[in-house]
Amino acid sequence: MEGCLQRIARQLTDYEDARQAVVNLREDCIRCLGDLNPPARFQSEIGSLLKELDEVKPSFPSQPRSSILYDREGLGKVGRDRAKRIVTRIEALSRDLANLNG
């Protein structure tokens, strides 16, 4: 399953806009994180990521821009910054889990 997370981490970097990446790959990421069986020290990070991914869920599934990542304040800066942090956390978790497995 760690391979699943590595694949998602690579896909996240393929997007020019981190917000779009997070919204488009959100469900795959939630499914992958939920299927992981990592060491205990990663449980809180995975739980925190799952919570954050749930928070950025679009209000209307057919309209990705209804996610809070597409905020109106600050011309989207807050949402872009949050999406970049989510991407960074997923990449770091993927790297850490890959390093555990050699």
Fraction of residues in helix: 55-70%
Q: How many strand units?
A: 0
Roughly how many Å apart are the termini?
14 Å
The average pLDDT score comes to 91
Q: What is the element string, with H for helices and E for strands?
A: HHHH
How many helical elements? 4
Provide structural commentary.
- This protein is mostly helical and 102 residues long.
- It is built from 4 helices and no strands.
- It has helices spanning 2-12, 18-35, 43-55, 77-100.
- The longest helix has 24 residues, at 77-100.
- The mean pLDDT is 91.
What is the compact description of this entry?
The chain is mainly alpha-helical and 102 residues long. It has helices at residues 2-12, 18-35, 43-55, 77-100.
Topology diagram in text:
Elements: H1 2-12, H2 18-35, H3 43-55, H4 77-100
Helix pairs in contact: 1-2, 1-4, 2-3, 2-4, 3-4
Which keywords apply here?
0% strand
